[in-house]
């Protein structure tokens, strides 16, 4: 009987039930409004609230007459149908079910539940239970599990009093099963797992031998098992296996009870599906034997149509048991099975490689090529296989072996063809990047052989078009580097030539430079250095790199050339890879390593001097302590090179080096010279000394300009010597910072230079006197000056005499006089006095005659005699004493011949007295005395006459 066919009671009879009638009218009006409402716009919030309020009022008026119950039943169905219309619209517009819709359904089913005991309606409890079930499903979808559970429980209560054996309608039978399953799912969602499983177990009573019921219940057991498996917990896996065993048992029971072939087919499929999940569960628990048992059952049921997962499960089980041969067979068998999806066998190969390692790489790639030959596979799958085989490129067991296998694999023509075309452009780039990165790792680990092979294979995945010219050129350049590392210079040359054709740039020029270096072709390397600046993308960093490479190869001329080119870019003001002072320092350090480079070093020292004169010392050397260290490095190297050149008698070069050394030591950093005045002074003194030594060595007289320049240097040095900064002033009691011999060299050089100018005798004398009055005075040094003044074409007997007399005075004042030196000075004074008549300057204390030459000479003999008086035998040099005695005696010869008896007697007495002071002259003295006696007698006889 249809609801529409139920007759409504007479309206006049309804008027007597005023409250119920009013409520029903209101509810009918609200239902009509819902029926007429457009589903495209939301229902006003007041409508569901008014319905709920009316339902509450109506509930308070129960019980009702059967006619009223029929009216409410009809009203409930109208509201339900309106909800169904709204639901269908929402489904068609892909919108979500709202909670307001569920509330309308709830009102409808609650109205029905209010009059479920109506008479005249067939199976009212099942109809009401069906409404509760469907409403509960909607609450479940909205995750309102408490409301869903309430609906399911009411539906269960409505059907619980009905004997299952009395239910004959197919839909009603299915409702009993669905209610239990729905309640179970809701209980599972609220983590009441025990209730959920209990409800599934109760559902077994409502199967009624229907295949669909068996499948529905078995599916739910399986779904719960899958959810537990996803948690990856040991206890969960155990429970999942129990649930799947239940599902499997249900399938088996269904197959025994169901006879129709079409229905048994679906059950068999579900049974196999459950078995596969059980096998996965066993695999997750490392129960590999059980996995294989499941696979055997699966294959028996599949009857030759091997499911893709069966081979994967079997392979993983064999791997787990360590039986790699069986696993390999399963993997190779997958090639034959055309039904296996690409993702499945790629995943299988990844598992195989992970378990077997390097030894399985060849098998896996062979399988891939087999698959490539029988069906279409994607380039992405090939990338996954290569990525898994390569793994950690450099590290790991058998890394080089895997790399070699990958190189062979990716060079296969079929595989390369798989990546051809525009559609595979992204995958082609990915494969190139994968191979390139692997090659780069080997390059960094200096395994150039494997690196070169991998780089070569990566080029197979670079198209030969204009857009990829740069990428191919880059590949050729890096291959050039690999072969350079392997010392395959011819191969390296081939690759870099190809790279230069595709993309001529400075990187290619630099690599050609490296090849020339390794071939020891220095001229070719220098030519490449000159070529680099002509490249469009040239930067000065490449010259710096070239210098480093040349130094590493000990090609010092090439390094010098590179650095000298680099220096030409600093005046441009462009950003540079390093500071100018470092380039100069590096270049000079290189030149110092090879002997004979002093002229080149001097050239760059002069260039550096020009640069810091232009820029300022702080800009060139740096400020503070850093700048001072840089400055002193240049100055100290000049000093050492100057000393070395002087020792090698390269006096001209020595002089230039010391002049430049003085310039560097004279630089002020932050306004300070940091105590370098003494080094400036010493450098200038040695520079002039080298000029004079060079003149003597080459016998080429210095020009007037050179003499003036040398005098200027000495005058600058003299100012420093006399200044307080070096503490060399004659009145300064503090220690000097300049060694005494430098003062002597200065004085000697100044004396020599002043002799070359007119009217410079006074300067010479002042210079000598300054030295004799200084703390640096050394009579031995002054003697050297005296000897220089007494000899040569520019001798000065007056200065020589002054120096010699000052030396004697200094030596005699010593606590331990050096009589050997004193005797030599006396001889030299006698010689000078005798030779330069009228030029000697004598003091009265020395026995001088005040201008008579013979008296001056006699005074020197007399002074020597006074010195000898009181000395021990042999203390005064015997030879010099003999020379004095004999020369004094011989000086009487001329007066004797001239008849100057007095004069002759004076010299003979001097000789006789000197002979008496010298050991070993007794015989000579006796002869002298006899001769003197004879002379005296002769004089007396002449006087008597």
Automatic annotation (TrEMBL):
Keywords: Meiosis, TPR repeat. SUPFAM superfamilies: TPR-like. TPR repeats lie at residues 129-162. The keyword Secreted does not apply. PROSITE patterns: TPR. SMART domains: TPR. The keyword Repressor does not apply. It comes from the Eukaryota. Gene3D superfamilies: Tetratricopeptide repeat domain. InterPro entries: Spo22/ZIP4, Spo22/ZIP4/TEX11, TPR-like_helical_dom_sf, TPR_rpt. GO terms for biological process: meiotic cell cycle; regulation of synaptonemal complex assembly. PANTHER family: SPORULATION-SPECIFIC PROTEIN 22. This is Protein ZIP4 homolog. It comes from Lactuca virosa.
